[in-house]
Specification:
Chain lengths: 284, 313
């Protein structure tokens, strides 16, 4: 009897070891490319010219010269500023529009309600990249091309993910709260503003995180609509490193790290909310 | 918007005429209320999604260059061109690399989600590491991997460590370049699939596992009979997102290779046609074809695996 047990135990131990090995391997695959770029960002031009391989350590691990170059010559201050402006307006707009839509859809019964819902659902199936050819003409017609208003307007419109997140939360608010407020003489807008919206704080936090990361990372919209040098956002400014810094991998690496760092900080600080946000947002 | 709506709402009661007409007017006012909340959302939705969609279909039958006021109706000429000029329809085949990569990605995500749903040490650490790439800026990722694949870069250095000295140009030939780019895509997007699967698995009631364990079920049996059915809705969603994403690939290939060396994708081609070569009509036709393919795949997917998850109504 003891022999089969031993065999089973041994097999289980091997399986467990293989599992941990695969997890460690995945960790290496994820972290190694990033780690090498960090190392590269700390090397001098001379060290890069030595061509001693990508895995070597920098002579001076506190050499931040490349970061200064990337930040200044790459116009990163302006990029972070433009991105911040877009983020504020786009997120504020998304929160208002998403919550109003969710409130109207969940709390009211009206003609064409199903049509409205269908319009949003169908729009969710249409990748923005496919309609951008024609959307460009609309944006251009409004005179928004090459202004920050273009990405702001586009990020505010058709965000089914945010609407869905708000809808889940609105649904969980008891209707009796609305009815109590209405008995006190409140109209629908007051109910939305004073009862529903304050209770949507968790949803707002989720949308802010998901939307914030999405907008911060977006390249396509700014690339198409903000060609001017001084309208660079984080993505497009980093992309422009390809030209003047074409072969200076140490500067390009520093630029990449500068862009990744804020994301890492936010992720470490808000892990739980980020997981929940993207899970809610994608499961629709 | 806020001020206007509030003033309208506040002003309404005082201006309400008394007596017989009150009920009908109040009913009318009430029935308009939901639309007040929907004005801005619907305006944005229609302006930036549906109007462009209709315009795009219209443009696709013209020779418009996107700038001049003149445009001529050309019937199905653009569509014929798309399917007869090799350099235009070969972008379909590039999508194949990303579709294959998606399959690998889903399997890997499923594996890691299953493994981490069981009792594993440092679970949070592994979860964080696997998910983090999904949050990183696409341009930064592209640069990380431009350096990764370059001559003497990260990959060559690692191979050299294990004694293999390669002079292969990873981004230098069509097959090698596309496989490399698709690999970057897996690196980047696996985290989302993984978190979705993990969330779905973790929402399965624990009692099912306990009952199965009492019946002597091992890990494989638990996966096959408990986990697999439980994650079916998320798996369906994941497949749709993967197909849609594969067909819409733009960022990584555009930033890394600019579509050169046979890596041009559908969207890269469309963007070039529209904004570099001023062929808005032809670009619109390409975009319509891509849109139809994505909608068809989504519809087919929902037909094959019916899912009552559309609970927005």
């Amino acid at each position: 009897m003891s022999k089969p047990d031993q065999a089973g135990t041994a097999r289980r131990a091997v399986l467990r070891a293989l599992v941990y090995l695969s997890l460690i391997l995945a960790t290496v695959v994820v972290l190694l490319p990033l780690g090498v770029v960090v190392l590269t960002s700390l090397k001098t031009e001379k060290e890069m010219a030595d061509d001693s391989g990508a895995l070597t350590f920098p002579d001076d691990p506190l050499n931040f010269h490349n970061y200064v170059t990337a930040f200044q010559d790459g116009r990163m201050l302006s990029a972070f500023g433009n991105t911040a402006i877009i983020l504020v307006f786009a997120i504020a707009g998304t929160v208002l529009i998403g919550s109003m839509t969710a409130y109207a859809i969940d709390r009211f019964t009206f003609r064409f309600r199903k049509l409205v819902v269908a319009l949003f659902l169908l729009a969710a199936l249409v990748p923005g990249v496919t309609t951008q050819v024609a959307t460009f003409q609309i944006v251009n017609g409004f005179g928004m091309f090459d202004t920050l208003w273009a990405p702001i307007a586009l990020y505010m419109g058709t965000d089914i993910v945010s609407i869905y997140i708000f809808l889940q939360f609105v649904r969980s608010i008891p209707i009796s709260l609305d009815e109590a407020a209405r008995l006190d003489g409140a109209n629908s807008f007051t109910i939305y503003r004073k009862v529903i919206f304050p209770l949507l704080k968790p949803a707002v936090a989720t949308v802010v995180i998901v939307k914030g990361i999405t907008v911060y990372n977006d390249f396509y919209i700014p690339f198409l609509y903000l060609p001017s040098q001084d309208l660079g956002v984080i993505s497009t400014s980093l992309f422009r490193f390809k030209g003047p810094f074409g072969a200076q991998w140490q500067t390009i690496s520093a630029g990449a790290v500068l862009v990744i760092l804020p994301t890492l900080i936010v992720f470490l600080a808000l892990q739980k909310y980020i997981y929940n946000g993207f899970m809610r947002g994608a499961t629709r | 918007m806020t001020d206007t709506a509030e003033k309208a709402a506040l002003g309404r009661p005082t201006s309400d005429p008394p007596a017989a007409s009150a009920p009908r007017r109040r009913w009318t006012w009430r029935s308009l209320t939901p639309w007040l909340f929907l004005i801005a959302p619907l305006a944005l939705l229609i302006t930036f999604t549906y109007v462009p969609m209709v315009n795009m279909v219209a443009y696709s039958f013209t020779d418009w260059d996107g700038v001049s006021p003149e445009l001529h109706y050309t019937g199905a000429g653009n569509y014929t061109e798309l399917f007869t000029r090799p350099e235009l329809f070969e972008v379909f085949f590039v999508s194949g690399y990303y579709l294959a990569a998606s399959a690998v990605q889903i399997v890997a995500a499923l594996y890691f989600a299953t493994v981490l749903s069981f009792n594993v040490r440092f679970r949070s650490l592994f979860k964080g590491v696997l998910f983090f790439p999904y949050l990183i800026n696409g341009v930064a990722i592209a640069f990380v991997f431009l350096y990764f694949f370059q001559d003497g870069g990260t990959l060559d250095s690692i191979l050299a460590l294990v004694g293999y000295h390669s002079d292969r140009a990873w981004l230098g030939t069509p097959v090698s370049a596309n496989v490399s780019l698709a690999g970057v895509s897996v690196w980047r997007y696996l985290g989302l699939n993984f978190v979705l699967f993990l969330g779905a698995i973790q929402s399965i009631p624990g009692e099912l596992y306990e009952a199965a364990e009492l019946d002597g079920a091992n890990r494989w049996h638990q996966f096959r009979h408990i986990i697999a059915p439980g994650i079916k809705p998320v798996l369906t969603l994941t497949v749709i997102l993967s197909v849609s994403g594969s067909l819409s690939a733009f960022e990584i290939p555009y930033i890394m290779t600019g579509g050169a060396t046979g890596t041009e994708t559908f969207v890269i081609q469309t963007v070039k046609l529209a904004f570099q070569f001023n062929k808005t009509g032809l670009a619109s036709a390409a975009a319509v074809v891509l849109l139809l393919i994505i909608l068809a795949v989504t519809w087919l997917q929902r037909r094959l695996v019916p899912d009552d998850r559309v609970d927005l109504v």
